[in-house]
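Weekly sync, protein design subgroup
Attendees: M.S., D.O., the rotation student, P.L. (late)

Item 1: inverse folding check
M.S. brought a backbone from last month's batch and wanted to see whether the design step gives back something sensible before we order anything. D.O. pointed out we never logged the input encoding, so this time it goes straight into the notes. Structure tokens as presented (490 positions):
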């Protein structure tokens, strides 16, 4: 590729990636951020295309069950006449008749035929069933990708909110720390303080400055991460609006058995394993079908321009029974392989079920711990904010030094940052628990839905989550002891 071709291709891709993306107007809410990610995120579009390809494979595979209808037209030519001899069937002597010509040297042949194989029909039927299950697998993978995307958006949104609230204050405190450092070095040069006291003063300022610069570096990329997830230009000026509602703990008040039931019915990983097991069982049927003889039917309409033919138009029909004798040798091993595939799929499904049950308990515990850590961090941030307000008043009265102002501001900033970090972890834990339960916003076609409509659906979904409104799950009952004994005897 030339440099110009590469440049043009990159420009075309960038224009296509931003096509039909509505610009952000006003402050960006959490609901709108999730809706924009669901509608415009490029990785989500790729997942949707994978599902569309799986559906098209299923749709195209259904035609393999139909008979094959073939139209042919051909032309033949030879440089010499097709001359034939004959001999007497009784004596075996050559016939006294002269050699005869029964075909023209050049002729055109037309053929329209239909062929249908019962064996191919059966294999195509089970192949279509497998493709239908693969469509469902693609849908479950799309759901899982949606859960991860919502989790990333919620975390990036709150990081952007913390950057929006803290960056200006961090910049002002860094400037104040720089001024304090200049004053300390000037006092050291003029020997206004003892060398040890002056160096300790500088070290404290530098330590606070290091913490502030690390905080500023962490906050700098938050806005870019959110812009990438919602597929907006990275130069977009973005302002987020923090939700007024606090994190809800109602989901933690529900019995864990209720959460298990929901996860058993809606978890994307577990549902995918069920579809894989169905594909493995259909594969055993396909292998078993190949062990039977093949029965084919054909019917042809033919026409030839050969003038030696008495009947230029004719029809042909036939039936063929075929059997590959090597299947007698390979059949048992193929069946064992197919049965092993079924056993593996069942084992993976059982493993996934146990893993999902564990994930429910772990995600619930992580969410409870994250809520607790957030509440503690919020309390600490509140105390530090009050202390900082008192020290700021003292600074205005010139009662305290610049070092004390820098230290107090740094402490308050770090406390507020830890509060936002705890909030990010709490929202990440909430999204992880939602993904484990298999809960996501429910909508039909996203292409036919406006951004405002999708935002409303996301808002209702978040409200349902805060109110702990869970869908119906699958009740899992433990087998009775008598059944276990009977199965053991049998």
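Designed sequence read out in the meeting:
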């Amino acid at each position: 590729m030339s440099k110009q071709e590469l440049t043009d291709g990159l420009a075309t891709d960038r224009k296509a990636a931003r096509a039909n993306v509505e610009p952000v107007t006003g402050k960006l809410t959490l609901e709108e951020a999730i809706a924009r990610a669901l509608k415009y995120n490029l990785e989500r579009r790729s997942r949707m295309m994978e599902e569309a390809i799986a559906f098209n494979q299923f749709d195209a595979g259904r035609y393999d069950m139909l008979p094959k209808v073939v139209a042919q037209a051909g032309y033949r030519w030879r440089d010499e006449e097709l001359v034939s001899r004959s001999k007497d069937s009784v004596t075996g002597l050559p016939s006294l008749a002269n050699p005869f010509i029964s075909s023209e040297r050049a002729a055109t042949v037309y053929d329209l035929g239909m062929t249908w194989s019962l064996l191919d029909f059966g294999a195509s039927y089970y192949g279509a069933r497998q493709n239908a299950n693969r469509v469902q697998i693609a849908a479950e993978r799309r759901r899982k990708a949606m859960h991860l995307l919502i989790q990333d958006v919620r975390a990036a949104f709150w990081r952007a909110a913390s950057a929006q609230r803290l960056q200006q204050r961090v910049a002002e405190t860094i400037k104040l720390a720089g001024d304090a450092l200049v004053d300390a070095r000037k006092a050291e040069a003029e020997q206004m303080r003892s060398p040890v006291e002056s160096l300790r003063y500088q070290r404290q300022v530098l330590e606070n400055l290091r913490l502030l610069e690390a905080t500023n570096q962490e906050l700098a990329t938050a806005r870019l991460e959110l812009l990438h997830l919602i597929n907006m230009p990275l130069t977009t000026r973005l302002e987020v609006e923090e939700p007024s509602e606090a994190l809800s703990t109602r989901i933690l008040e529900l019995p864990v058995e209720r959460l298990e039931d929901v996860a058993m019915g809606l978890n994307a990983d577990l549902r995918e394993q069920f579809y894989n097991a169905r594909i493995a069982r259909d594969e055993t049927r396909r292998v078993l079908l190949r062990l039977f003889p093949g029965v084919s039917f054909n019917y042809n309409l033919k026409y030839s321009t050969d003038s030696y033919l008495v009947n230029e138009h004719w029809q042909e029909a036939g039936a063929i029974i075929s059997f590959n004798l090597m299947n007698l040798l390979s059949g048992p091993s193929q069946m064992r392989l197919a049965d092993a595939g079924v056993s593996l799929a069942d084992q993976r499904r059982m493993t996934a079920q146990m893993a999902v049950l564990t994930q429910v308990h772990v995600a619930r515990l992580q969410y409870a711990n994250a809520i607790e850590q957030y509440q503690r961090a919020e309390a600490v941030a509140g105390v530090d904010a009050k202390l900082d307000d008192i020290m700021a008043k003292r600074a205005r009265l010139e009662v305290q030094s610049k070092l004390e102002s820098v230290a107090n501001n740094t402490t308050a900033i770090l406390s507020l940052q830890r509060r936002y970090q705890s909030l990010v972890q709490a929202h990440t834990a909430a999204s992880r628990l939602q993904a484990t339960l298999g809960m996501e916003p429910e909508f039909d076609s996203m292409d036919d839905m406006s951004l405002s409509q999708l935002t409303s659906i996301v808002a209702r979904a978040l409200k349902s989550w805060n109110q702990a409104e869970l869908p119906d799950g699958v009740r899992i009952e433990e087998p009775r002891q008598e059944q276990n004994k009977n199965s053991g005897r049998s």
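Discussion: The longest helix spans residues 118-189. The chain has 13 helices and six strands.
Action: P.L. to compare against the previous round before Friday.
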